[in-house]
Write a structure and sequence with these properties.
This protein is of the alpha+beta class. 42% of the residues lie in helices and 16% in strands. The longest helix has 25 residues. The two termini are 19 Å apart. The chain binds adenosine monophosphate and zinc ion. Adenosine monophosphate binds next to helix 1 and strand 12.
Length: 492
């Protein structure tokens, strides 16, 4: 294991400090994933990419990483930036919209956008998290946490739901600085609910027997609040105290503040030892908004012919702690630079005949890689790390030592993911490989079975096939033209 310190800015202390893990050499990490009511946009992906770079850097240091990225498919309301969210469930609203007309029900809508998000995740070459838990699959754990909070005096039932009593947690506000006194200001414009002890108290459970996604609970039919989802899922998969929790800057308050209050009030232990918040992406200097026509999803840009790896490059080119102004010019520049990396790869492949094996470093490329890793360990300084990747590509074009070139390209791709997509075959090798068999049947036969299952709306069976193939190293890729497969390189 490397002796380097991995330093990251921690929102709670306001300092860049070493990322310390409870278990030595094992990072347990939770990232707030998307709400699947629509396609994730490139701003969402800026946040996910920063988390991906944490996972990649930790792995480059030889750490084990357990990374959980949830999928929010219920309970995230439209008015989510105030102490207790109001408005309507984003999922329900989406079903009633024009785009929603194509779905038979809200469950299909959720399934569709969750798959689209995972597809975009792979296009942008993010590493696969260990778990992608869905909020709707963990309602039982959310009910249990809520019951626990009522039992120990931190929550109470009203005619409209169950609410967390923020006065019961004296340090509420410690992450965002929105202390309870400040909150009295913040909640002024919120619809008043006379049943709550104070307006800043937030919902753990909403009673609603009209909601399209509802569960039976000790408080009748209803659905969970958005914050309790993450507390429950983080605890199920990572335990009482996690090493690192990340999200976009808007998650700091109220979402993460509420997660802390809930979890700590049940466990009596710190919820997360390190907090990471990603600054928002802007487009051509403005807030990204559908209204102003500067709203981009990954698929918008890929359909326009942009290289997904160049999009990745552009989205990570500015360190996550600084605002990123995404421009079409930056994307075109990124395409040129990714091409330089590919050119180096083709050169290496040309000399060695294939891209197989690990290669071996020479002194110069080892130094350049070490500098890139040092930059990533310095609060994910991607602008320096990327400059090092390009310096390495230049060095490869000068050297006769193709083995060192191969070594560098594999290492730098592991760290930054900007040379070739791990979910696709890189270089010209093994593309004509014979179709592999899984449990004695060809992959194309499994794909046919899955299509049949999907047509009869048996999504569980369809998903089981996808999972079966994935565990055999076969990744399915859905597109309007049909499903194709790729072999996923071992170890990514
Ligand atoms: P949501 O789907 O709204 O739950 O958001 C998913 C993640 O994307 C959250 O961590 C948000 O904080 C983050 N996010 C949303 N908009 C942006 C943006 N413009 N730039 C960076 N991150 C964002
Ligand atoms: Zn969350």
């Amino acid at each position: 294991m490397s002796q380097r310190e991995f330093r990251l800015r921690d929102t709670m202390s306001g300092k860049v400090r070493p990322l310390e893990t409870v278990e030595r050499g094992h990072l347990r990490f939770y990232t707030c994933g998307p709400t699947v009511y629509s396609y994730a946009h490139i701003g969402n992906f800026r946040s996910f990419l920063a988390a991906d770079l944490v996972a990649r850097t930790a792995k480059a240091l030889g750490w084990k990483v357990t990374w959980v990225v949830n999928i929010t498919d219920v309970g995230h309301l439209t008015q989510d930036d105030v102490a207790d969210a109001g408005g309507e469930d984003r999922m329900e609203k989406a079903l009633r919209s024009k785009e929603g007309e194509q779905f038979a029900n809200v469950w299909e809508l959720a399934e569709y956008y969750a798959s689209a998000y995972i597809e975009d995740w792979k296009r942008l070459n993010l590493t696969e998290p260990n778990v992608r838990p869905k909020a709707t699959q963990h309602v039982r754990e959310q009910i249990l946490l809520t019951q626990e909070l009522i039992k120990n005096g931190h929550a109470y039932e009203t005619p409209t739901g169950v609410y967390f009593d923020v006065d019961s947690k004296p340090d509420y506000g410690k992450l965002s600085g929105n202390t309870r006194d400040g909150l009295k200001e913040a909640v002024r414009n919120v619809v008043l609910d006379e049943n709550k002890r104070q307006q800043a108290d937030f919902a753990l459970w909403k009673k609603d027997d009209k909601h399209l996604m509802q569960w039976f609970s000790p408080w009748g039919w209803g659905f969970p609040g958005w914050h309790i989802e993450c507390s429950a899922m983080a605890r199920v998969y990572l335990g009482d105290t996690i090493d690192l929790h990340s999200g976009g800057e808007d998650n700091m308050f109220p979402h993460h503040e509420c997660e802390i209050a809930q979890t700590e009030s049940v466990t009596g232990k710190p919820f997360a030892n390190h907090w990471m918040h990603v600054r928002f992406l802007q487009v051509e200097g403005e807030k990204m908004a559908k209204r102003t026509g500067n709203f981009y999803t990954v698929r918008d840009l890929v359909d326009d012919g942009f290289d997904p790896l160049a999009l990745r490059y552009a989205l990570i080119s500015v360190p996550y702690g600084k605002p990123l102004n995404f421009t079409m010019q930056s994307l075109r520049d990124a395409e040129r630079n990714v091409e330089r990396m590919r050119e180096a790869m083709r050169r290496v492949e040309g000399s060695l005949g294939s891209l197989e094996g690990e290669g071996a470093p020479n002194e110069e490329l080892q130094r350049i890689y070490d500098e890139a890793l040092d930059a990533m360990c310095d609060d994910l300084n991607t602008s320096v790390a990327i400059a090092k990747a390009l310096e390495g590509a230049k060095a490869i074009n000068r050297t006769e030592d193709a083995h060192a070139g191969l070594w560098f390209l594999k290492k730098i791709n592991g760290l930054l993911g900007i040379v070739c997509n791990d979910y696709e075959l890189c270089g010209g090798t093994s593309k004509s490989e014979e179709e592999p068999k899984v449990e004695g049947r060809a992959v194309s036969e499994w794909i046919e079975d899955r299509d049949t299952a999907k047509q009869s709306r048996d999504y569980a069976a369809a998903d089981a096939i996808r999972v079966k193939l994935a565990s055999a190293g076969i990744e399915l890729r859905d597109s309007p033209e049909g499903t194709t497969w790729v072999k996923r390189p071992v170890g990514v």
